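Weekly sync, protein design subgroup
Attendees: M.S., D.O., the rotation student, P.L. (late)

Item 1: inverse folding check
M.S. brought a backbone from last month's batch and wanted to see whether the design step gives back something sensible before we order anything. D.O. pointed out we never logged the input encoding, so this time it goes straight into the notes. Structure tokens as presented (286 positions):
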């Protein structure tokens, strides 16, 4: 009789233990379901939209990186993809490898989009990189001698831009009627110093300076080559039409995340960053 009683008590105790354990597990699962996930707990980006923007390294990627934090707070995770070969940025956008690109100005875009069949849209202007004349041999424009070898970019829009700058400095004269932002040395009708023009890929011009009397070089390439932009003998003024732009596929300009990107890039904070970091080398276009 005593043995049966002990056995009954043991069974009851075992059942109570199992019930308590079951209740504990149930309560634990419920609490776990209410806990934030890793990104939520850290104030992370659960539900954010990823925006992939292709760019040149300097200053474009540096400017984009300045707005990452503010965009994250607005639900956009900005991924900056730097292309060493800028010529691949438009094909990458066309092929939907990226959502937007940031490296070019309107005259350059206009010079190639018809040829390549790109259906792109411009969403905002960000900055101007005044193109300038640099030299390892000369200290002023007045030292440019007859027959001097001058390097200029060989892509249509920047070649025109370089020749217009030389014209503004009184060194050459271009024929009238050049309205498409395209020109070559063949369009020069007056060259009193008989300057010799070396047409070359823009990216090679900083390295070619020792072999030239001077060259007209895009500022982003000057910055990448660690050349002081203040050393330019002369440069474009801030009224240049060559503002660098955000470009997207036609129809994407109304995407909410693109509008947020444009707003961030034209903020007072970015304007201050550009002015303080780059000085005369990069000028805000807004």
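Designed sequence read out in the meeting:
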């Amino acid at each position: 009789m005593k043995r049966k009683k002990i056995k009954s008590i043991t069974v009851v105790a075992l059942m109570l233990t199992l019930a308590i354990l079951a209740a504990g597990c149930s309560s634990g699962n419920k609490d776990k379901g209410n806990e934030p996930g890793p990104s939520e707990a850290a104030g992370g980006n659960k539900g954010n939209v990823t925006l992939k923007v292709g760019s040149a390294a300097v200053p474009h990627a540096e400017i984009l990186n300045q707005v990452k934090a503010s965009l994250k707070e607005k639900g956009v995770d900005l991924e900056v993809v730097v292309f060493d070969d800028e010529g691949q940025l438009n094909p990458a956008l066309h092929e939907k490898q990226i959502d937007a690109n940031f490296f070019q100005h309107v005259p350059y875009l206009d010079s190639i989009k018809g040829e390549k069949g790109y259906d792109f849209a411009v969403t905002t202007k960000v900055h101007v990189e005044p193109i300038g004349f640099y030299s390892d041999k000369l200290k002023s424009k007045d030292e440019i001698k007859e027959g001097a070898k001058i390097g200029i970019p060989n892509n249509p829009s920047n070649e025109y831009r370089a020749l217009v700058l030389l014209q503004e400095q009184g060194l050459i004269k271009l024929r009238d009627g050049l309205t498409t932002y395209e020109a070559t040395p063949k369009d020069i009708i007056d060259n009193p110093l008989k300057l010799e023009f070396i047409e070359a890929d823009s990216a090679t011009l900083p390295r070619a300076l020792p072999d030239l009397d001077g060259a007209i070089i895009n500022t982003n390439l000057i910055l990448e080559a660690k050349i002081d932009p203040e050393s330019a003998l002369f440069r474009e003024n801030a009224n240049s039409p060559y503002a660098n732009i955000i470009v997207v596929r036609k129809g994407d300009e109304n995407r909410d995340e693109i509008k947020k990107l444009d707003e961030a890039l034209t903020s007072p904070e970015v304007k201050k960053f550009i002015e303080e970091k780059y000085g005369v080398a990069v000028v805000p276009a807004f």
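Discussion: The chain has eleven helices and 13 strands. The CA atoms of residues 52 and 79 lie 5 Å apart.
Action: P.L. to compare against the previous round before Friday.
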